[in-house]
Design goal:
1 helix, two-stranded antiparallel ribbon, about 50% strand, mainly beta, single chain, extended
Length: about 90
């Protein structure tokens, strides 16, 4: 199938009050191949209960097709949000 790549980086943000705070981020990317195209997809967690989704997909320039969307992104992202449970 593929494999995941993640790394941690830090950056500084200036807040509205002028204070500078340091933030850390750990993005996760999923490498997979579909129809012979190597794809690097940015994975993120959806906080509505659906679990992980794919935000962006990166392709080689020669494989780029306007409006391209992988089957993996379609499967992971196109699913109904869980309904609220009634008491």
């Amino acid at each position: 199938d593929g494999f995941c790549i993640s790394f941690e980086y830090s950056y500084k943000v200036k807040r509205g009050n002028g204070r500078i705070v340091e933030r850390k981020a750990t993005p996760e990317f999923l490498f997979h191949v579909e129809n012979g195209r190597p794809i690097l997809s940015q994975k993120e967690f959806e906080y509505d209960g659906r679990g992980p989704i794919l935000l962006e997909e990166f392709l080689r320039e020669e494989d780029f097709v306007d409006g391209f969307r992988s089957e993996l992104k379609h499967r992971m992202n196109d699913r109904p949000a869980p309904s609220m449970m009634k008491e």
